[in-house]
């Protein structure tokens, strides 16, 4: 397996590194898409994928800035799907998707509309709990981006309701929280097929978040996804220990899957996560090259 620990200067033996999991203000990050690209360049990365939640709104800006600063860009998306385990989370990363794909455009529009319907329910519940919060405040926090729970959490922190965004999710907005409402999610088959029909490569994000209880259950869940057309697995992630990285790497090899990895950078919403470094590990550029070689999206004509 090819991963490296960065030295104090963030470099390792002159090798090239990338980050294949990042978010911008187009979804729930705090850096604009162009700023994420500039930060990637400043961090010494040679390539980056922008994978905003359920939207492709930031891709054009990110692609233009990536070309300007001179890093390789892979257009992406992170789609929420129905998990195989009730308390788990299933996200599918789509790499190299065609942003002009009508299939992808229709899907993201439907997901954003469903999210927009959920947000007022959360605000109403919070007000019923005696918390002074309005939709206008949350919209201002989103600043034109796709409004989501992190923006609501940021308002709660700013108003002193909770000290941190993490606590906002634990107490109010996360699964089991006082103001939690489930959101619209695609069936796994639909999420994978939409990505592939849009020219992209479908990859399982942060498998630890499936919350499988044992290795056998994890392998069954992964096999089911592979049978649906899954093409890769996120081996390196900020939530993955070194032991998990080894486990997921072996699973990738066993099932013939592409390896991916990234920090899951969100900017100030996840202050402990640095772009380009995932729990001490870095993602080799060749992983990005192998993924890009399997895509059929229009990004290939624009590189």
Structure description:
The protein is of the alpha/beta class and 303 residues long. The chain has a domain at 17-109 and 184-301: Metal-dependent hydrolases (TIM Barrel, Alpha-Beta Barrel). Helices cover 40% and strands 13% of the residues. The chain contains ten helices and eight strands. The chain has helices at residues 33-42, 59-69, 102-128, 135-142, 149-158, 165-173, 188-197, 215-227, 242-255, 285-294, and strands at 17-19, 47-50, 72-81, 90-95, 201-204, 232-236, 258-261, 283-284. The protein has an eight-stranded mixed sheet with strand order 7-6-5-4-3-2-1-8. Strand 5, helix 8 (215-227) and strand 6 form a beta-alpha-beta unit. Helix 1 runs parallel beside helix 2 and helix 5 (149-158) packs across helix 6 (165-173). It starts with 16 loop residues before the first strand and ends in a 9-residue tail after the last helix. 48% of the residues are buried.
Give a short overview.
The protein is of the alpha/beta class and 303 residues long. It is built from 10 helices and 8 strands. It is globular.
Instruction: Provide the CATH top-level class of the domain at 17-109 and 184-301.
Output: Alpha Beta
Mean pLDDT, all residues: 91
Look at the helices and sheets and give the structural class.
alpha/beta
Whole-Å distance between the termini? Answer: 28 Å
Q: What is the fourth-level CATH superfamily of the domain at 17-109 and 184-301?
A: Metal-dependent hydrolases
Strand content: 5-15%
Task: Going across the biggest sheet, name each strand in turn.
Answer: 7-6-5-4-3-2-1-8
What's the main sheet like?
8 strands, mixed
Radius of gyration from CA coordinates:
19 Å
Which ranges are low-confidence, i.e. pLDDT below 50, for 5 or more consecutive residues? 6-12
Number of DSSP strand runs: 8
Please write the string of helix (H) and strand (E) elements: EHEHEEHHHHHEHEHEEH
How much helix is in the residues? Answer: 40-55%
CATH architecture of the domain at 17-109 and 184-301: Alpha-Beta Barrel
What general outline do the C-alpha atoms trace? globular
Instruction: Tally the helices.
Output: 10
Looking at CATH, which topology of the domain at 17-109 and 184-301 would you report?
A: TIM Barrel
């Amino acid at each position: 397996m090819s991963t490296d620990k960065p030295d104090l200067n963030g470099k390792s033996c002159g090798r090239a590194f990338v980050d294949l999991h990042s978010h911008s203000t187009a979804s729930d990050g705090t850096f604009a898409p162009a700023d994420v690209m500039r930060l990637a360049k400043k961090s010494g990365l040679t390539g980056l994928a922008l994978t905003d939640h359920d939207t492709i709104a930031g891709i054009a800006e990110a692609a233009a800035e990536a070309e300007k600063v001179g890093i390789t860009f892979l257009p992406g998306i992170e789609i929420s799907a129905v998990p195989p385990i009730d308390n788990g989370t299933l996200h599918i990363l789509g790499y190299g998707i065609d942003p002009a794909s009508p299939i992808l455009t229709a899907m993201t529009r439907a997901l954003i509309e469903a999210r927009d319907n959920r947000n007022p329910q959360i605000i109403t519940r919070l007000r019923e709990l005696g918390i002074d919060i309005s939709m206008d405040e949350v919209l201002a926090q989103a600043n034109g981006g796709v409004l989501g729970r992190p923006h609501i959490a940021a308002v709660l922190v700013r108003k002193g309701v909770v000290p941190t965004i993490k606590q906002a999710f634990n107490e109010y907005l996360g699964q089991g929280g006082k103001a939690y409402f489930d959101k619209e999610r695609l069936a796994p088959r639909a999420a994978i097929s939409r990505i592939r029909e849009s020219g992209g490569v479908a990859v399982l994000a942060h498998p630890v978040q499936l919350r499988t209880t044992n290795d056998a259950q994890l392998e069954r869940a992964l096999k089911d996804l592979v049978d649906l057309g899954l093409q890769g697995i996120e081996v390196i992630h900020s939530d993955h220990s070194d032991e998990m990285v080894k486990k997921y790497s072996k699973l990738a090899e066993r099932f013939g899957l592409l390896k991916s990895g990234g920090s899951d950078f969100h900017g100030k919403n996840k202050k402990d996560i640095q772009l380009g470094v995932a729990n001490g590990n870095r993602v080799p550029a060749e992983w990005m090259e192998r993924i890009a070689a399997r895509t059929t999206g229009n990004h290939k004509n624009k590189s």
